[in-house]
Amino acid sequence: MKQDLNSQKGFSRKIRTIAVLTVLFSLVIFMGFGIEHGTTTTVVNIKAAEKDSVASTKAFMQVYKVLMSPRCMNCHPSGDIPLQGDDSHLHAMFPKRGVEGKGVTAMKCMNCHQPKNVPGLNTPPGDPNWHLPPANMKMVFQGRTPAQLAKQLVNPKTNGNKTMEQLIAHADDGLVKAGWNPGEGRTLPPLSHAEFKKEWIQWIKTGAFAPKDK
After folding, report:
1. Model pLDDT for residues 142-180, shown as the tens digit of each residue
2. Which residues, in sequence order, are CB contacts of 168 under 8 Å at separation 6+?
3. What does the DSSP 8-state code read for residue 180?
4. 3-state class of 14 per DSSP?
5. 142 near 76, Cβ under 8 Å?
6. Where are the domains of the chain?
7. CB of 137 closer than 8 Å to CB of 117
8. CA-to-CA distance for 97 and 104, rounded, in angstroms?
9. Which residue in 90, 106, 175, 189 has the most C-beta neighbors within 10 A?
């Protein structure tokens, strides 16, 4: 009888040990996956944030100012011709979007927009990935109200198939950051990139609410 009791206790200890090891192993796998893909901190931060429609919409209105500035809106036109200049007029060369957003036939964006800004006043700004959004996901900013644009940005069907985590990461996209390095003769967005990123993350973390149009 005593031997049976000892056997049961030993078996129980083994079960507890296996359970603890299983939990620890699962945590290690989860953390390793997050670190490898750069998502652990982002996912935790989003889930930990409290939804706050007032704070969220307030942050988006700051974001909206940047997105509607020429540095952003010029590459998010309502038509298939990019806009140009601080007054957002149609591009003087009348290039077309094309299927991939990189131009058509011999008139490709990268013909003039080099990997870096061309030196000189009002010369073509540059980036290694200069392009408009593709034809099947135009992501229009021009003419959008705050409510329309906010809803568009959080919908994977209209934002380039991005998750909330990918939307946060998009603030540091190279072409996005190029808006703060537009070359000589062009105005900068109304917020610094650091301020824009802060408001962008605040908007998303607090629920990505859309402001109500007046």
Report:
1. 999 999 999 999 999 999 999 999 999 999 999 999 999
2. 42, 46, 200, 201, 204
3. G
4. helix
5. yes
6. 1-37, 51-205
7. no
8. 7
9. 189
